[in-house]
Every structure is written in structure tokens, then in C-alpha cells.
Amino acid sequence: MINKLVSKIQKLNAPVVVGLDPMLGYVPEHIQKAAFDEYGETLEGAAEAIWQYNKGIVDAIHDLIPAVKPQIAMYEQFGIPGMIAFKKTVDYCKEKDLVVIGDVKRGDIGSTSAAYAVGHLGKVQVGSNTYAGFDEDFATVNPYLGTDGIKPFIDVCKENKKGIFVLVKTSNPSSGEFQDRLIDGRPLYEHVGEQVAKWGEEHMGDSYSYVGAVVGATYPEMGKVLRKVMPKSFILVPGYGAQGGTAEGLRPYFNEDGLGAIVNSSRGIIAAYKQEKYSQFGPENYADASRQATIDMIEDIASIF
Amino acid sequence: MINKLVSKIQKLNAPVVVGLDPMLGYVPEHIQKAAFDEYGETLEGAAEAIWQYNKGIVDAIHDLIPAVKPQIAMYEQFGIPGMIAFKKTVDYCKEKDLVVIGDVKRGDIGSTSAAYAVGHLGKVQVGSNTYAGFDEDFATVNPYLGTDGIKPFIDVCKENKKGIFVLVKTSNPSSGEFQDRLIDGRPLYEHVGEQVAKWGEEHMGDSYSYVGAVVGATYPEMGKVLRKVMPKSFILVPGYGAQGGTAEGLRPYFNEDGLGAIVNSSRGIIAAYKQEKYSQFGPENYADASRQATIDMIEDIASIF
Q1: What DSSP state is assigned to residue A71?
Q2: Which of A161, A177, A239, A256 could join B146 via S-S bond, C-beta 3.0 to 4.6 A?
Q3: What CATH number does domain A2-302 carry, 3.20.20.70, 3.30.870.10, 3.40.50.720, 3.40.50.300?
Q4: Which residue of B has its CA nearest to A44?
């Protein structure tokens, strides 16, 4: 799956992933109305609205990008109907041959981490059958619990040619509260990055590891250091656009081969029609606005090479 | 909800929470068979089996204990049907007047953490209606992303009189890999504990805060220190029994008032019938074995006061 991600990035010349993080407030009025007319103002109605909204965006942009990153929290807030919309979105994106990074930020210990890994990346045994629960291609994982928490994910990934992105340095303002604290003279995120490199050696693709890292676009200096610490790990870079990360600041996240990073934009793409820049599309043509914003983002990132 | 937890603990004289972490391998043959006869060896069949298994245990022990802690990973591994079984379990335990601690270990930034908080502890707005998605009373939360990740949970908790337990020092062997590293001469977990105390001041119950901490039973020395660092925070203590934590080692987790900690046992209670000690019950009477194991655990813990 890491090989597929790399080859799609090369083919499309687009180290870009679109975050499918639908807030109900992003969904154009006409889609909300159709969903509520059918299901009422219920969790089912909300789930239908975000699913139809996603589908419109995926139909409009799937040929431009290698991957999508649905953020499960945005679905989980709508309870079971929301989880069904998440699963439908994952399945639909895979039908469209997109690599699906489940932004689930799970992490626990031993058999519990194994259960998360099985649910999102593997197959669970039921009697003599096996089933995939959510079946993303990659998942984001929280490292706070250490190797016991990560190893079960890697084991499941090995069996299924799937991968993970471990949170190393997140994009938010208070990420430094713990992540930047100095341990033996170097920040915690560097120590986590070193472990990512080590974990990654266990499960290598052709040129990159199945174990990647999350490093926010908002901290390019740290991106530069972490790029060196984890030379074989793909870096998933959130925080471009809406959160303030710029294309210029992204260069250090890439290796000399022009690979090694994939930049995420969520709101900037999926709610593009709400920006002044794309307002001429209007809510009815929100998906066309997303397509234009995707094209612009790919160009913007290409400009740094 | 923290006041309810405290008063239930006092009334029952049982600072004990039972972890509803069903592995399919724990579920007695006759329950599996009935579920598979009805739904086949499918995800629905597995979900039905763990739900019936849980129901039997809850019916047998609900009068003995203040709280349960379903581990969502064990349900999530069965995809959507598993999530439905999780929701049924939460609802059923609340019907039985148990405090429900969702062991979900979620955590993200800003609006994404808010979405998790809303989904598990709050209510989501859909048009002019509001709905609770999963509706636990407490949730466990991962602190790696810092205050931005925690604050949205606290905001939702304030509105809904709910609470969180923040991972501080986990029970697993490699928890020290990052959590024990020294920062300014003190381990990371102490710094996290200090933040828990600070976050907790924002949302106080009568005698304890709605912001608690997770500290593993396997590290009593650290429990002692952390008890002092977070005097007003309840400590949720996993790792008793199966993971090696002993009753004797639990004393430091409690305050002088005999409160301030709640000890979890999962496998030791729910799969008690598989232990030699309770084997006379047999798989048919697994729930009675769980009841006996609960009584024994409550006695064991009472012995330390």
C-alpha cells in the first residue's frame, strides 16, 4: 500500500491528500434539505447529508489526487449513523482507487491496540470466517503508550500490506506542551521520531516504510530535523492552508527524491465554495469549487520543487 | 456525574469498575452458538454474542459495583455491528444505574476533539434537534496533543456534567518509553499529571474534579507521587489482577478519605469462569462466576483500608 501511494503520487505529480472532515455546517443547504426531507432532522439525516456531500467531492476530485483522509471524529459525533457514513465513504473512495488514510488517532496497549488494528486495517475472525470492519489502507496512531501500543498495529499491517502514520509533532498551537519538552537535550518529538524510524525498519516497502509519521506543516524547522531522523518514513503533513502552513514551508518535509511527504488539506478543499476566492461557484457547484481548489493546491505545492 | 460516582462508591463500599472488554474467545460456547444460529458466523453474529455475554454479566453484578468501563476497541474490531453492540451495552448499563466510563482513548485538536467529545459525552445539533451519539458518562482521553486537545472535552463536559480520565501513566510494560523520560528532572507523566490538576480546577464537583487520570496499578511508586500531584483528581487504575497489580500496591492511589481512586478489572471478572479458582461454575454459569469474582475483588480491595 505504501508502494501504491508512492506510485500514485508520482503518476499524478501530486503529494496531496484531501481530508474528508465534513462538518454539517459545510454541507450546502440543498444537500441538507434533501437528506432531512428523506430522514428528518435526525442522526440518519445528518449522516446522509455528509455522505452525499462527500460523494460529490470524491466524484469531482478522485482523478487528481492519490489519497483521501477521512477524519473519523467528524462521523463519530453522529453516533452509529455517522459511523455508517464513515464506512460508506471509505468503501466509495476505495472503489475510486484512492488510498484511504483513516485519521482515527487510535492507540492503546497489547490486545486492545490489536483490536483497533484489526478493526481498521485487518480482518477479524468470526467462527470460520474473517471480516474487515472498516478496512482503511492506513491509520493514524498515537504513540503515548510506547512500543506495546504500536507493535500490534505493525503486526496487523504486515499481514495486510497496510500502514500507519504515528503522531510525532502535531500542527496545533499547544502541541509543544509535551511534544517539545527536552529530554536529554532533544525534544520529545525527536525521540518519538527515532522510534518511528526504528519501528519502520520492521515493515519496509520498496523505497519507503509502511510506518510513517504525522508532522504539522505549521512547524517547518521541526519538519527539517524530523525528515533527517526518519529518512525512510513518509510524513503526513496536516496544517497546510486553513491552519497557516505555506507551500514554501513544506520543502523541508520532502526528501531529495521529491518524495517522502504527503500534504493534507481538509476545509481548504472540501469547503472551498465558502471562500471568497471560489465564491463564484456557489453552493450548488461546491464540488467544482473543491476541484478548482485541489488543482490550485497541487500547483502551489509543485512550485516548491 | 463525578458526585454520583463518589456517592455510589461510598454506598457500595466498592471503589471498583468492571471492564467490559469482551473478546469472542471469552464468550461461552452456548452463547456463541445461539448468536451464530440466528445471524450466522458474521459480524452481526459476533456482535450479538458479545452483547448477550455482556448482558449476562451486567445482570449478575450491577448491584455490586458503581461503574463499568467498556473498552470500545473490542467492539470496533467488529465494524458497524460491533459499534451497535457497544452502544447497546452503554445504554443497558445506564438503565441499570451504572456509571459508564467509555474507554475510548480519543484525542485530537480543536474542532476534531470537540467532535469526539460531542459524540461520546455531549449532544450534536442536527437542524433544530440535538442527539447524543454514544452518551457515556466519562471518557478516557490521550494527552499527547496538549491543552488544545483536552480543552474541547472539558467544555463539553461542563455543559453535560460529564467527565474525562486523562492517560497519565499507563499500565503496560513499555509505558516508560516516553512517559518516564525526564524533563527538567521529573518524568513526563508528572508533567502531564500537573496539567491534569490544572485542567481539573476548571470543572470541579463537590469534592473531586470531573477531570481524572489513568495511572496503572503496575506502578505503585508512581501512583504515590501522582496522588500528591493531582489531589482532587480521581485516579482510574487499570492493571489490577491479570496484568499483575496487587491490592497491597493500590493503597497509594487513594487519598486519606479512602476515596480518589477506582480500580478496574476486566478479564479477571468477565472471564472469571475460565480461571481455575472459579472453574466450578462452568461456562453455563459464567455470570455467576463473574459475580463471585467481583465480590472477591471488592473484599480484596477493602482489606487495604
Answers
A1: B
A2: A177
A3: 3.20.20.70
A4: B126
